[in-house]
Amino acid sequence: MEDCLIEDQTTFYSKAEHYWKEVPPTVDGMLGGYGSISNIDINGSKKFLQKFLGEGQGKTGTGCALDCGAGIGRITKRLLLPLFRTVDLVDVTQEFLDKARSYLGDEAKRVENYFCCGLQDFQPQPERYDVIWIQWVIGHLTDDHLVEFLRRCRSGLRPNGLIVVKDNVAFEGVIPDDVDSSVCRDLNVLHRLVARAGLNIICEEQQQNFPEEIYQVHTLALR
Question: What does the UniProt entry say about where the protein is found (predicted)?
Answer without folding.
Answer: Nucleus
